[in-house]
Amino acid sequence: MTVAPTSDDLEIRLHGRGGQGGVTCAKIIAALYADLGKSVQTFGDYAGERSGAPVRAYTRVSDRPITNRNKVYEPHHLLVLDPTLLGDDVVAGLRPGGTLLLNTPEPPAAFTERFAGHRVATVDATAIARRHQIGTRSVVIVNTTIAGAFARALELPIAALEDAYRHLGFESNLPAAREAYDAVRIGFARKPEEGAASARAASPASRPEVLPLVSHVEGAPTGLRTGAWRTQLPRYTHHLAPCNAFCPAGNDVIGFVQALATKREPEAAVVLSRTTALAGVCGRVCPAFCMEGCNRREYDGSVNIRALERWTADRYDVAVREPAKAATPRKIAVVGGGPAGLSAAYELAKLGHAVVIHDGEQALGGVLHTGIPTYRLPREVLRREVEAVLALGVETRLGRFLDREGLAALALEHDAVIVATGLQRLRRLEVPGSGLGGIEQGIHFLHRLNVGGSARIGETLPLPQRGEGRGEGRASNEITGHVVVLGGGNTAMDCARGALRAGAASVTVAYRRSRAELPAIAEEVEAAEHEGVSFRFLAAPAGFVGDGIVSAVVLADVELGPADASGRRSPITTDRTFELRCDAVLLALGQSADLSLVPPGWTLRRGRFFLGEQPLSVFAAGDVNTGDGTVAHAIGDGRRAAALALRALGDDVVVPVRPDRATAVPATDIRFDHFARSAPTLDRLVPVPARLSGFDEVSLGLGDALESHRCFSCGECTRCDTCLVYCPEGIIRRKELGYEVDYTYCKGCGICVTECPRKAMEMSAS
Ligand code: SF4
Ligand code: SF4
Ligand code: SF4
Questions:
Q1: Which of 105, 185, 589, 628 has its CA 20 to 30 Å from the CA of residue 485?
Q2: Looking at domain 10-209, what is its CATH homologous superfamily?
Q3: Where in the chain is the domain with CATH 3.50.50.60?
């Protein structure tokens, strides 16, 4: 009775020596089964790659397509082309009842006791091949001969054997194969307990030295010691993932995405909470720098990381609820309750410090509260995350804008002060007609839209002059007719989309550069277009026309010159102008830090204030310090400022440093061919007509976190087994948190490193 392929794969292993044609013999056997309509796979490995060196070859047969590419460790049948190889290690793994075909003049009875439990077949293939003059006088090639014996031993029809030889062009060797077919002798199986211990039952102590390292593939053939000729060794290493390098908030992006991918969702929330309390906010409004850096972008589209961050924050508590340390006596004031201030407060409160946030508004959030419309950021999300910061014991003083005296007093009363007042100075436009009614700063419009009442967003904000149009004739947030928005950033998009919802009949955004240079988030621009906003590119404001109230914007044609410091092509305004009729104008021309809050004599250097040369215990965080202008940057800089303040107070804390993007794993180091293509899962969006009827959130995010499965895990091992499978020596084995290489047998070929799909390995000098 032979072990035959039914629903399981049939696996066959051959042992021979270099020059005997063992790999070709495995191919003949594969061809034989292929002729019988089976799926087949065959390959060999060559150990020391020299004549006479032990060679193993493998054949797999199945009724289904074969995807298993491992070597064969537990064969159903075994062929040994050279009797001198015969040892326990060679037969190790042979399944009970499996056929052991030996090239030997000895009868099966000479082996049945030694290999009890197996079916032993013998044939003197060397003598037959020599008679048929296959090979040379000194080196007889037995492969085509013993394949005939194998067919008989496995009860395969001689016709299939003949077909296989014809397909492979071995007809001249058929007589020898037929002779072996007739000559093979088959012994009788005995139960293991009737004979000596079987190879499978060999005690671990009797196995070759390599086996303990490959216990997951028990029975692997013995490797060759590599000795001094190996000059390099593979190592498992961590490399910086680009998503981590690109996130200005300092989030461990790969950490939380991989936690999602491996169904450890609560851990994803814990990973995020280490660096941010505003994951739900960033998951909605961040430009997603991480996705810009994501290596998957080069393949089939970035992983939708931002949406995964939102998904996590909307379902799990992404916040540290308890300070990690007992309360300290340190008192720290934070001026400004926007993202930078909240981030600094979160970091400080986590360490047990007493923090008070001062803000002129009646609610925390800064621009998140006053500037970003609710259709992008529902206020319950902001409230939830602000409350998480306050839950750490952070106190607030709201509704009073500080002046210079107030800031100086805080500095005297506290161990440290962190100034996080954002970008309060609005760029104005000094062109003819700019004093007309109906022209308003976009930030003021958004403030009215989001908070209602006065558009005043801070004592330090330069108040619009009478006639500049702030709220004139519009006590509510209504805006009607055709609205022109001047600018191309995110504030411009918020103004345009907000105006459509607030009652504008139509909106045009005029921007002085081309579409390619638009600084706004691409999705925001796209959404604005879908909602009906028009764009006029290469058009710069040259004046306004109107009789008390603006009725048209005068726009000048712009041509693009060479790239400026920002890397964008600089606009060159021509004297060709045209008028764009309008009923209202919103200015979104940019903002900058306003340091008029700072007492005389104070200067800001590298995030810290100085009085002359004397460092003060006053630090700047977020936009007021960097001018970067995004929530993610503000969060990252808030953390940095908190750490800097504590360092200055003598605490042993590490000031976070933005990683060098150039050191991140490049896309060229990712083995794309190991990954199936799949398009990103995009956020679900409310249809346009439903959007415009109110201020409800437009994006519904993701329905699940399966998008995380697209993550390559750049630079971090996922235990995918690729190295283990590809190592030709079979000397990599799993251990609890990764793998272990048996360096005694590693030849330093680097195949494992080359095949690692994600650069989680590298070669180094041995
Ligand atoms: S904060 Fe922005 S850049 Fe960082 S992980 Fe979130 S979406 Fe990506
Ligand atoms: S594929 Fe994953 S690990 Fe790599 S950059 Fe993208 S999110 Fe990060
Ligand atoms: S593939 Fe195997 S033999 Fe080659 S370097 Fe890697 S561990 Fe060593």
A1: 628
A2: Pyruvate-ferredoxin oxidoreductase, PFOR, domain III (3.40.920.10)
A3: 246-424+594-661, 429-438+460-590
Rounded to an integer, the average pLDDT of 564-574 is: 86
Ligand 2 geometric centre to CA of 731 (Å): 29
The yes or no reply on domain 429-438+460-590 and CATH 3.50.50.60 is yes
Q: Is the pTM of this model over 0.85?
A: no
163 alpha carbon – ligand 3 mean position (Å): 39
* Strand ranges (E), 315-455: 331-335, 354-359, 395-398, 416-419, 425-426, 439-441
Q: How far apart are CA 144 and CA 31, in angstroms?
A: 12
The fourth-level CATH superfamily of domain 246-424+594-661 is: FAD/NAD(P)-binding domain (3.50.50.60)
Closest ligand 2 atom, CA of 715?
3
Pocket lining for ligand 1, CB < 6 angstroms = 247, 249, 251, 253, 282, 286, 288-290, 305-306, 309, 632
Nearest bound ligand to the CA of residue 242: 2
547 forms beta bridges with 549
Model confidence at 327: pLDDT above 90: no
Assign residue 174 a region: left if phi > 0, alpha if psi is -120 to 50, beta otherwise? alpha
Q: Dihedral sign for Cα 63, 66, 70, 71, please.
A: positive
Which range in 6-20, 74-88, 128-142, 627-641 is most confidently predicted, on average pLDDT? Answer: 627-641
> What confidence score (pLDDT) does residue 188 get?
64
Q: Which helix H or strand E contains 547, and what residues bound it?
A: strand 539-547
Residue range 594-617: average pLDDT? 94
Inter-helix orientation angle 305-315/265-273, to 10°? 100
Residue ranges of the chain assigned to CATH 3.40.920.10: 10-209
Going by pLDDT thresholds of 50, 70 and 90, the confidence category of residue 460 is very low
Amino acid 766: pLDDT = 67
Does the Cβ of 152 fall within 6 Å of ligand 3? no
Q: Could you give the CA distance from residue 571 to residue 569 in angstroms, rounded to a whole number?
A: 6
749 lines ligand 3 (CB under 6 A): yes
Mean pLDDT of 449-466: 45
138 pLDDT above the threshold of 70: no
* 227-238+716-765: CATH topology: Alpha-Beta Plaits (3.30.70)
Q: Which atom of ligand 2 is nearest to the CA of 295?
A: 5
For residues 496-519, give the mean pLDDT: 95
| pLDDT one-digit tens code per residue, 536-549 | 999 999 999 999 99
